[in-house]
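Notebook, bench 3.
Goal today: get a predicted structure for C-type cytochrome from Iodobacter violaceini so we can plan the truncation constructs. The sequence was checked against the plasmid map this morning, with no discrepancies at the termini. Length recorded as 105 residues. Pasting the sequence as submitted so the record is complete.
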Amino acid sequence: MNLLKQSAFALSIGLLSGYSFAADGMALAQKNNCLACHSVDTKIVGPSYKDVALKYKGNAGALNMLMAKVKNGGGGVWGSMPMPPNPQINPEDMKTIVSWVLKQK
């Protein structure tokens, strides 16, 4: 395979894997009822995912901190409404969801 074809192939795989990651994040958020209180770009009960991503942009500890908040619940950061704990979410699914949230623009 020549260099041009290899580059196009690598780009295609990268785009497809990015699409899969985004689709997986949204699907898992829907499956775990996250969208009952959150949306991608509008505040509902909790903040929008875009607002969360903006708030934690560049924060190296955001993934682990937000995973702990999803699992254990939390409050006080976005107003008076606390987020209930969600210990039933599989840790790998939770990581996919939170990683996806943090990539919103």
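DSSP finds four helices and no strands in the chain. The two ends are 35 Å apart (CA to CA).
Flagging this for group meeting.
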